[in-house]
Amino acid sequence: MKKTLMVAALTGVFATAAHAQSSVTLYGLIDAGITYSSAQKGHATYQATSGTVNGSRFGLRGAEDLGGGLKAIFTLENGFNIDNGNLGQKSRLFGRQAFVGLASDQYGAVTLGRQYDSVVDYLAPLSNTGTQFGGTIAAHPFDNDNLNNSIRFNNTVKYSSVNYAGFKFGGTYSFSNSTEFANNRAYSFGASYNYAGLNVAAGYLQTNNNVNNQQFNAATFSGAQAGDYTFGAGRQRTFGGGVNYTFGPATAGLVYTQTQLSQAIGISPTQSGTTNGVGFNANSARFQNFEGNVRYALTPAISLAGAYTYTRSNFGGGVNPNFHTVALQSDYALSKRTDVYLQGDWQHVSSNDGGVTAFLNGLSSASGRQDQVAVTVGMRHRF
């Protein structure tokens, strides 16, 4: 009898240990290059660049099996500049992502922490900007729709569904952590559907800020949006949809996004490439982006990609510049973990009564002209 009880007890211990299996993975990506630009403040420049295609990062990702299809998960992801070793995302230790949560095989995942919004999660993969096929320089002007991940959100609760025969959906709510509950909060939702070679997606993002209180410009501020803002505005609404289709080695897609601003002040210096930023001339402003893109696997090692984006904008006061942005990229895989790339980007500003100049995302400064060209040669290594 005693032997039977001992065997039963040991069996229970081993079963518990099996359910409690856990794993932690260290991962990362390093992207370094040399970029030529035709004009920055009116002068041609050469500069070392970090994260031209994908932002350099390293992180820890872990999971613990809790049994019954449930597991605990976490991600801590740091962003950095490979050229000087500085921390990214306003010197945050884990500025790209930092969250913990529970994931169920049946019901999806709930996570808490600093995270991406639903426009980034569902719609952005259909665009070339912000992905391995277009990179950061190809961002829609000023990254007005956040497809290039200029903003991550603090204090965020996120729900992500499981895959229901190709259909996925989710949403986020980012707390202000303030007695002014609605000041500096954000929320989003999105969905995607995949069937054979067809992919469709849509997303919506809204942020709220008291523009009379610019504390959210500092990374130490407690609100949802802190330190890495794109626009100074009381409210930002971004929505859009996209579709792409894969046939053989090629994928072609269309993406539309619109960003509407109210109580609009201007564009941050980081995004506008000027010392004091770019101001708006009215209480509201708007951007509309129309992107067509293509990706083609020439061989298993060589890929080609290109995109054209037409952006209509309204800065108020009769200032309505239109932006034409072209991005081309070729990539050669030296191995599964290392590749080299050549990338070219061009932006032209038309209908420009307000003197807004071209500014390709990620460069040091605006062109000072209506056109700007950037050519980058670089390499990426994953670990």
Outline type: globular
Strand/helix succession: HEEEEEEHEEEEEEHEEEEEE
CATH class reads Mainly Beta
Please give the alpha-carbon distance between the first and last residues.
53 Å
What do we call the CATH homologous superfamily?
Answer: Porin
Mean pLDDT: 91
Q: Which range does the strand content fall in?
A: over 45%
Structural class: mainly beta
The DSSP helix count reads: 3
Find the count of extended strands (DSSP E, 2+ residues).
18
List the strand order in the largest sheet.
Answer: 1-3-4-5-6-7-8-9-10-11-12-14-15-16-17-18
- Which fold name is given in CATH as the topology? Porin
CATH architectural name: Beta Barrel
Contiguous uncertain segments of 5+ residues: 1-19
| Rg result | 22 Å
* Count of folded domains: 1
Range of helix content:
under 10%
The largest sheet is: 16 strands, antiparallel, barrel
Keywords: Cell outer membrane, Ion transport, Membrane, Porin, Signal, Transmembrane, Transmembrane beta strand, Transport
Subcellular location: Cell outer membrane
Pfam family, one: Porin_4
Protein name: GBP family porin
Structural description of this entry:
By secondary structure, the chain is mostly beta strands. It has one domain (about 30-55, about 115-155, about 165-380): Porin (Beta Barrel), CATH 2.40.160. The protein has three helices and 18 strands. The protein has helices spanning about 1-20, 120-125, 270; strands at about 20-40, 45-50, 55-65, 70-80, 95-105, 110-115, 155-160, 165-175, 185-195, 200-210, 230-245, 250-265, 280, 285-295, 300-315, 320-335, 340-350, 370-380. Strands 1-3-4-5-6-7-8-9-10-11-12-14-15-16-17-18 form a 16-stranded antiparallel β-barrel. The model is unreliable at about 1-20 (pLDDT under 50). One of its GO terms (molecular function) is porin activity.
